[in-house]
Amino acid sequence: NVGSPFVATFAKVGITIAAGLINFVVITAAMSGCNSGIFSSSRMVYTLAQKGQMPRIFTKVMKTGVPFFAVLAISIGIFVGVILNIVLPLVIDGSENIFVYVYSASILPGMVPWFMILFSHIQFRRNHSDEIKDHPFKMPFAPYSNYLTLGFFILVLIGMLFNSETRVSVIIGIVFLSVMTIIYFLRGYHKEDKGEY
Predict the structure, then answer these.
(1) From CA 148, how far away is CA 174, in angstroms rounded?
(2) Largest Cα–Cα distance of the chain, in whole Å?
(3) Computed from CA positions of residues 122, 127, 129, 135, in that sequence, does the dihedral angle turn out positive or negative?
(4) Is 3 left (phi over 0), alpha (psi -120 to 50) or beta?
């Protein structure tokens, strides 16, 4: 049982087949999402390794072009997460929400690209106002829609700070992004991006 409210509803009214089908759909969707995550994150690791920002071993690929060590590292990370999700609640009180902590810790770093896209779009419109005047593909209600979306993201983060289950994750996300930003500048990657490194 996955814990879906739909599964519980069908099970209570005696339609166990429908409950099983919904369970199957939920598990299949979860596996599909996991597969997608492994694919995208392993390719990110491979690209970072090519740029010298990850160990070179992650640049090695199989004959089929699959970055084997990158996929292996991501898979091991997922496996460790599954084990921790099972074991920690047995040995540490209050750790039954480990999945919530880990998942919500990725929300802030996951929002960063969207913040950058929205800010970049606002700046692009300012710098190319004449060129986009008659453009057929305009962002509806821009730049107000950009500000509205940014405000929504900020409200989500504020809400997470008020939620005891997600507060620690937001703080961890802020610390993680701060450390990564410091490393980015200390190692001179900002100069490399500008072609000065």
Answers:
(1) 22
(2) 68
(3) negative
(4) left
pLDDT over threshold 60, residue 194:
no
Q: Give the list of residues 6+ apart from residue 173 with CB closer than 8 angstroms, or none.
A: 105, 106, 107, 108, 109
Locate 65 and state its tokens. Answer: 């072009």
Specify the DSSP class assigned to residue 59.
G
Chain segment 126-184, per-residue pLDDT in tens: 888 777 777 777 777 788 899 999 999 999 888 888 887 778 778 888 888 888 889 88
Question: Whole-angstrom distance between the N-terminal and C-terminal Cα of the chain?
Answer: 54
Handedness of CA 104, 108, 113, 114 (dihedral sign): positive
- How far is Cα 79 from Cα 89, in angstroms, rounded to an integer? 16
- The letter for the amino acid at 131 is E
Token code pair at residue 143: 């730049």
DSSP state of 15: -
96 — pLDDT class (breaks 50, 70, 90): low
